[in-house]
Amino acid sequence: MCRHLGYLGPERSLAELLLEPAHSLLEQSWDPHDMRGGGTVNADGFGAGWFGDDGRAVAYRAAVPMWTDVSFPQVATQIRAPTVVAAVRSATVGMPVAAEACAPLSDGRWLFSHNGKVGGWPDSLAKLAGRLEITDMLTAAPTDSAVLWALLRQRLDAGEPPDRAVRELVREVLAVAPDSRLNLLLCDGHRLIATTWTHSLRVRRSTGTVTVASEPSGPPQRWAEVPDRCLLIADTEHVEVTSLEEDS
Ligand code: GLN
């Protein structure tokens, strides 16, 4: 299953965050340590997103293993940001290998990643996707993650608070596809909202900095495991973890 990472804190280069640490996201693309539910490498593409000076979300995504992209290391050295969401992908069987399918997905305001799969795809999600606009469906890559993103965006566009939108999305997907794995990660530039539903997630805090990641990277100290079936809300000052169970 894919690996993802979200960072809020002092400005860092993408290289410092994603390429240079011990057991970096780059290393997790070929040697992940905690894959649950299948997959041995994350070689079906990758992406890194940040927010530009105008506040718009930008994402560099490619349908190749992170370690084969000759341009990314140069870009990663030059791009510095206080907010980053990145992922390496192991495509779920039957889903296309394409840049559009790589996280982070974005509409320019949010960065979104999904680590997992929706059970019974595509029939299960079709029950929920019926309420999507046709344009949403056409612009989305034909993956479970893209439909999850379209469904979440609908809630966000309607003004639902992001933590509630994520919680409600998990609840409604589990209602039609209870065997799903739903580690979601959403960022508006200031907050990270993440879920654990049968995949690994760790969080590390230090003064003015928070990182959430499927697997720890960098110094091993201070990483805490986020329990399964939880919602995490984090900014640079606070981390709050609550159970998703009572709403499922
Ligand atoms: N199901 C999603 C995809 O295929 C996520 C895959 C994963 O977490 N391995 O893109």
UniProtKB/TrEMBL annotation:
InterPro entries in UniProt: EgtC, EgtC-like, EgtC_Actinobacteria, Gamma-glu_amide_hydrolase, GATase_2_dom, Ntn_hydrolases_N
Keywords, sorted A to Z: Glutamine amidotransferase, Hydrolase
Signal peptide as annotated in the record: none
The protein's Enzyme Commission number: 3.5.1.118
The protein's enzyme class: hydrolase
PROSITE patterns, sorted: GATASE_TYPE_2 (PS51278)
Pathway noted in the entry: Amino-acid biosynthesis; ergothioneine biosynthesis
Catalytic activity: gamma-L-glutamyl-hercynylcysteine S-oxide + H2O = S-(hercyn-2-yl)-L-cysteine S-oxide + L-glutamate
Domain Glutamine amidotransferase type-2: 2-248
Hydrolase found in the keyword field: yes
Record function comment: Catalyzes the hydrolysis of the gamma-glutamyl amide bond of hercynyl-gamma-L-glutamyl-L-cysteine sulfoxide to produce hercynylcysteine sulfoxide, a step in the biosynthesis pathway of ergothioneine.
Name this polypeptide is given: Gamma-glutamyl-hercynylcysteine sulfoxide hydrolase
Originating organism: Saccharopolyspora halophila
Lineage: Bacteria, Bacillati, Actinomycetota, Actinomycetes, Pseudonocardiales
Protein's gene: egtC
